[in-house]
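4.2 Preliminary Data

To establish feasibility before requesting continued support, the project team ran the inverse folding procedure on a target of 110 residues. The structure was first converted into the token representation described in Section 3, and no sequence information of any kind was made available to the design step. The complete token record follows.
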């Protein structure tokens, strides 16, 4: 079951800018062809390219910080996945399965 909690916060520097913090529970897996990369990267369904996401493995509380490099393709393989992580980022979460429950936290500027 997926739950999404969102909070709106006013930017204290410029009150005209609104910042929305997204905290989403979902599922993560690794990017299949990312064996050569040593960077903490991700593909995400809705977050903009360049967004920084805190990814917490809900099974062991390990956290990694990744940068979104593109949209997660809408294919059958990704139906139940919210984010795909580079191999090194996925390993840092100490995942015991190929698909793991995660909590994603990131900021969107509106």
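Position-by-position output of the design step:
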């Amino acid at each position: 079951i997926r739950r999404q909690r969102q909070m709106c916060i006013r930017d204290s520097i410029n009150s005209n800018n609104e910042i929305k913090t997204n905290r989403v529970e979902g599922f993560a897996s690794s990017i299949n062809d990312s064996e050569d990369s040593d960077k903490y990267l991700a593909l995400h369904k809705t977050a903009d390219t360049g967004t920084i996401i805190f990814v917490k493995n809900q099974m062991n509380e390990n956290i990694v910080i990744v940068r979104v490099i593109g949209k997660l393709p809408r294919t059958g393989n990704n139906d139940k996945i919210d984010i795909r992580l580079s191999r090194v980022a996925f390993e840092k979460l100490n995942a015991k399965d190929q698909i793991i429950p995660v909590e994603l936290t990131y900021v969107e500027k509106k």
